[in-house]
Amino acid sequence: MEKKKAKNPIGFTDLLGISGVPKTDLRVNLLGSLDEASAALGMARAFLDEETDKTVLENCQRELSSLMAFVASIGTPREKQIEANDFQAELESLESKLETLKTQVEMPRAFIFPGENQANGSLNFARAIVRRTERELNEGLDQLGLKSPAMLQYLNRLSSLCFLLILKYSKND
Predict the structure, then answer these.
(1) Using CA atoms, how far apart are residues 167 and 83, in angstroms rounded to an integer?
(2) Secondary structure letter of residue 95 according to DSSP
(3) Residue 21's beta-bridge partner residues?
(4) Could you give the CA distance from residue 131 to residue 142 in angstroms, rounded to a whole number?
(5) How far is CA 24 from the centre of its chain?
(6) How far is 92 from 157, CA to CA, in rounded Å?
(7) Mean pLDDT of 110-122
């Protein structure tokens, strides 16, 4: 019986239109960070009560997927096919949601410790991952010689969104 040969040997993966990319490639690392951020938002979404808040996080996950498609296309034959979305519209939409949320919460007078409840804990976790992803994307885009201020601001505002949702889902004692 003939064994099927693996498409890529261990330690390699595919990007859009190319095979055999080392898992140590900067783009693969950035994709992993963005994927973690999306997964953390998904976990937080599972613990939220309000459908509106769940929808906001789901939309953010979709936007992170668009960002991932852009990163996965860098340096591939598909790079020109995927528009380098400047993320300005997504940033403006997110900033609008932040303004609405700011009216619904009160700023804390003391440090908030994660884990007060499931929503609070998962949102804090998501916020930490989004902040790390923002740092890594900043560094990665610099190394790749790409500029996208709105993408980076988007991730910054996404961590602010998580913070405001943390306040919304915390006890106000």
Answers:
(1) 36
(2) H
(3) 13
(4) 17
(5) 20
(6) 10
(7) 87
What one-character-per-residue DSSP string does 6-42 give?
PSS-TTEEEETTEEEEETTSHHHHHHHHHHHHHHHHH
Please state, in angstroms and rounded to a whole number, the distance separating the CA atoms of residues 29 and 67: 14
Q: Which of 57-61, 72-76, 102-106 has the lowest mean pLDDT?
A: 72-76
Q: End-to-end distance of the chain based on CA atoms, in angstroms? A: 68
Specify the pairing of strand 12-15 against strand 18-22: antiparallel
The alpha-helical segments, DSSP class H, found in 4-148 are 26-47, 51-73, 88-102, 118-144
User: Residue 3 pLDDT > 80, yes or no?
Assistant: no
Task: Please give the model's pTM, rounded to 2 decimal places.
Answer: 0.88
User: Which of left, alpha, beta for 44 (phi over 0: left; psi -120 to 50: alpha)?
Assistant: alpha
Distance CA 104, CA 95 (A): 15
User: Shortest CA distance to 48 belongs to which of 136, 171, 166?
Assistant: 166
H or E element: which one contains 168?
helix 149-168
Q: What pLDDT score does 102 carry?
A: 95
Look at residue 159 and tell me whether its pLDDT is greater than 90: yes
Mapped onto helix, strand or coil, the DSSP state of residue 151 is: helix
Question: Token digits for 106?
Answer: 């009160």
Tokens 């498609």 sit at which residue? 69
Let me know how long the chain is: 173
